[in-house]
């Protein structure tokens, strides 16, 4: 069975839990208390090279990074979640949006709302004085605006639904925790509802 090294408040961990539920794949969850720095050990580094959650182990194979995990799971268990050749470039491009644009805007903005600024700065690897909240808000608004335009008139990011939708949904599902009013983004809100109607869907904070 897959072991998932997990933290319940992490959007990156949530997207892996969600995908496992969507594809009907069971897992054993092992809680890693990142706020207590329980991930900062040499033992955990053997599973996750950068000591980050989520990570999984299966049959002696360890994989870390939520994006890599989603692709591994789709390739092994659910190839229907991979885009056909005509759309695969878009699928990978939107996975890249999750790894870069969302990870550098909405994800840290939400972090500043759910933990102290000092704790957020620690996890972001900067001093508290360098936390640029206004910059995070501007970048978040830009990313959400671009995604809104992408999803206006289409149901999914890349053909779809694909792992790209789940990858981007992880933190988009938590947008309200970042102080985002999703009424300003009707196409994005409708896309979230489509994901929430998929068989096997579990909301953030609920065990799969």
From TrEMBL:
Q: Tell me where in this chain the GST N-terminal domain is found.
A: 1-81
Record GO terms (molecular function): glutathione transferase activity
Which keywords label this protein?
Transferase
Family matches, as InterPro entries: Glutathione-S-Trfase_C-like, Glutathione-S-Trfase_C_sf, Glutathione_S-Trfase, Glutathione_S-Trfase_N, GST_C, Thioredoxin-like_sf
Cited Gene3D superfamilies: 1.20.1050.10, Glutaredoxin (3.40.30.10)
Provide the GST C-terminal domain boundaries: 88-208
Matches recorded under Pfam families: GST_C, GST_N
Question: Per the UniProt record, which EC number(s) apply here?
Answer: 2.5.1.18
Recorded hits in PANTHER family, A to Z, give: GLUTATHIONE S-TRANSFERASE-RELATED (PTHR44051), HYPOTHETICAL GLUTATHIONE S-TRANSFERASE LIKE PROTEIN (PTHR44051:SF2)
Q: Which family does it belong to?
A: Belongs to the GST superfamily.
Name under which the protein is recorded: Glutathione S-transferase
Q: Which organism is it from?
A: Bordetella trematum
Encoded by which gene? yfcG
């Amino acid at each position: 069975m897959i072991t998932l090294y997990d933290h319940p408040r992490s959007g990156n961990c949530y997207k892996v839990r969600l995908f496992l539920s969507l594809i009907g794949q069971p897992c054993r969850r092992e809680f890693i208390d990142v706020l207590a720095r329980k991930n900062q050990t040499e033992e955990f580094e053997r599973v996750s090279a950068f000591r980050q959650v989520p990570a999984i182990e299966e049959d002696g194979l360890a994989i870390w990074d939520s994006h890599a995990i989603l692709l591994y799971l789709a390739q092994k268990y659910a190839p229907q979640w991979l885009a056909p050749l005509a759309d695969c470039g878009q699928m990978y491009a939107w996975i890249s949006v999750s790894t870069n644009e969302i990870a550098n805007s909405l994800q840290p903005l939400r972090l500043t709302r759910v933990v102290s600024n000092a704790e957020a700065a620690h996890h972001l690897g900067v001093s508290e004085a360098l936390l640029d909240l206004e910059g995070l808000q501007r970048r978040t608004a830009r990313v959400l605006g671009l995604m809104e335009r992408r999803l206006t008139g289409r149901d999914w990011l890349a053909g779809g639904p694909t792992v790209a939708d789940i990858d981007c949904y992880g933190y988009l599902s938590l947008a309200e925790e970042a102080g985002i009013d999703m009424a300003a983004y009707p196409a994005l809100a409708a896309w979230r509802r489509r994901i929430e109607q998929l068989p096997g869907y579990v909301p953030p904070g609920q065990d799969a």
